[in-house]
Predict the 3D structure of the following.
Amino acid sequence: MPDAKKKGGTAGQSSDLSARGSCSWNGLDDKGLKGSQYRWLDVGLTRFDSDQALGSGAERATADYTKQIAKTKAAEGATKVAAEATAGIGEEATVVTYGLSKTDEDFEYATVVARTGNVVVTLTYNGAGFAGGKKPSSAEMVEGAQKAVKEAIGAVEKTAEATPPAKGEDKDADKGTEKAGDDGKKDSGFPGTRTPPRRRPRPRPSRDLTAPRIAKPQVRPARWRARPPRGPGFPPPPRNETRTHVPGCAIAGRLRFG
């Protein structure tokens, strides 16, 4: 492709970038009296989530993959339309080629629709010769489109590999998974095996963090002098005696009710 006007491309509008996105590039190779070569490349990606009513993400992507092929083949004004499945690009891919006349020029188109997992990639590469320039061949457009879509599919698959599995999908976390012992035999968890069974941790009582915490009243010893009973026949009272007491008013003043 000739030098693009914007190296980073022009991003298309999307209401939800987590589900769909697109980008396009265009460039012109001006050779003066020998004519010019114009190229256009755009790529769109759509990701499908699993839905209980609509099916898994891969199933929904497969349905959209079929729709995109039919939509490309039905392009308005297209001539010499041909579609062919191609291998080595994602899980499935189809190349659609056709010619189209616009702005008094004959354009050659190559569109590749590919699917990997729950993502559908639609890439279109087209070009034309201006001012006497030679019209590009269909094989040239197909070669450029396949090269670009392989890079797009590779980026999608790399992102999928880097994404951590959803909670509960880790096979190693399965309670029924058995681990091999030192002698290569699976640990059955019974006596006689080299690896002793793991002890289950004792359940800890749950603590309700939302309940209000009430300060416990402090119990303070108080020293007091006993009043000696009056009357004959009573022994003399001790000089000092210690008892534990909690004044009721002090407790009421420290409590907080929510």
